[in-house]
Design goal:
mainly alpha, 3-stranded antiparallel sheet, two-stranded antiparallel ribbon, 17 helices, elongated, disordered N terminus, metal-binding, peroxidase
Length: 426
């Protein structure tokens, strides 16, 4: 799949996949984000579109006549509206990032996020099957990437809350004046940008935090700091805490020196923030002994009886190379050659299951790695005795599931809506 534009003017990465026009870059520079490329150039591909079936969690396709939402087109539509010279610093990017992380925690109508919501409403109408949660999250990812930030792995699957009770109570999360874009007096109460290039994503914030002298601002607003040289930049008490607390200071020093490290850590953290509470799919292959003993149906039954949805199933004859990659974290163990040989002894059945907390609960259904420690009622507790013949492998984390699904189902997996979910989930 080819995206419409390639955002290459800031030196973007070019691995085996491209990114959308607003996907991340490798080395953002402290200059305003470039203008959009002309229509004739090609956009970077949205990570999810290529890897939607490969990353192991909650890839929900909202279909209309069996046609999935084209998230690349949604991404492109967001990219089209980002720049506006008449708004603030010339870009809606910062406010869209704020919308994404506010929506992942708590939402306050007084923070000026109505601007971002109104901006995205026409896109929601154009793509009615996408949830607001996915749209707002994707908008944040797009903004970060288009402003020169890191590549954020993103996937759909968020559902919208039906009432305010599902949201974090007001006052439960800290604000910037207590702990840790451009602040606006009519929104947060604070005033001023953190850097001289507020629409460019870089590590400039950390550099300025260390290089400038910060003094209390003399004004009638809430307490904040300004730089001593120009009084045009701002820092909050939470910002200064990062250099006054030694446990935080080490990261400020690291990120100021190494932008790539900051990008790496930020990308992982932002992805985690935007995926909190989203159901993921675990990869659950049945090992050769489970296949030969005729227990495949029983294993499927356990997961289906729980309420999980089977979205991929395949009888496989794994290669040595596949198994060595799959069990790569065990290569240094003495039992590794025996393990690979055992897995080569017959066919295996790979499965991908989808549902709420599927990774965590799926492992509970399987039981302990050692069957003798597994409780009765679990798969291993009921059907096996020795560790070396424990029937199934289950992903131990979302990240593991992503890699394993990519390895065993390179063609991708696809989820379609089912009516009985209303009988399983509240």
């Amino acid at each position: 799949m080819i995206a419409r534009r390639l955002f290459s003017t800031i030196g973007r990465r070019s691995p085996a996949f491209l990114k959308p026009r607003f996907q991340t870059t490798q080395a953002a520079k402290p200059t305003p984000a470039p203008k959009s490329a002309p229509e004739s150039s090609s956009n970077t591909l949205l990570y999810t579109v290529i890897f939607a079936a490969l990353a192991g969690g909650g890839y929900y396709y909202y279909t209309e006549q069996n046609k999935p939402v084209n998230y690349q087109e949604v991404y492109n539509a967001i990219a089209e509206v980002l720049e506006n010279n008449d708004y603030d610093d010339g870009s809606y990017g910062p406010v869209l990032v704020r919308l994404a992380w506010h929506a992942a925690g708590t939402y306050d109508v007084k923070t000026g996020l109505g601007v971002a919501r109104d901006l995205l409403e026409p896109i929601k109408k154009k793509f009615p099957k996408i949830s607001y949660s996915d749209l707002w999250s994707l908008a944040g990812v797009a903004a970060i990437q288009e402003m020169g930030g890191p590549t954020i792995k993103w996937r759909p699957g968020r559902s919208d809350a039906v009432s305010a009770e599902a949201c974090t109570p007001d006052g439960r999360l800290p604000d910037a004046s207590k702990t840790h874009d451009h602040c606006h007096t009519d929104r947060s109460g604070f005033d001023g940008p953190w850097t001289f290039a507020p629409t460019t994503f870089s590590n400039e914030y950390f550099k300025l935090l260390l290089s400038e002298r910060w003094v209390a601002k003399k004004w009638a607003g809430p307490f904040q700091y300004v730089d001593n040289k120009t009084s045009s930049l701002m820092m909050l008490p939470s910002d200064l805490a990062l250099i006054n607390d030694k446990s935080f200071r080490k990261y400020v020093d690291l990120y100021a020196k190494d932008q790539s490290l900051f990008f790496k850590d930020f990308a992982a953290t932002f992805q985690k923030l935007e995926e909190l509470g989203v159901p993921f799919k675990p990869d659950t292959p049945v090992k050769p002994d489970g296949v030969e003993r005729g227990l495949v149906g029983e294993i499927i039954k356990r997961f289906e009886s729980k309420g999980y949805k089977l979205v991929a199933l395949q009888l496989m004859h794994p290669t040595k190379e596949q198994l060595e990659e799959h069990y790569g974290d065990l290569k240094t163990k003495s039992f590794f050659p025996k393990l690979v040989a055992y897995m080569l002894s017959g066919p295996v059945v790979g499965m991908v299951w989808e549902g709420k907390d599927a990774v965590k609960t799926g492992r509970k259904l399987l039981g302990e790695t050692n069957p003798l420690n597994s409780a009765p009622g679990t798969i291993r507790g009921d059907f096996c005795i020795d560790v070396g013949k424990n029937l199934c492998h289950g992903s131990d984390a979302v990240e593991s599931a992503q890699k394993e699904i990519a390895l065993w189902f390179p063609q991708g997996v696809k989820s379609v809506a089912r009516g009985l979910d209303r009988l399983i989930y509240e």
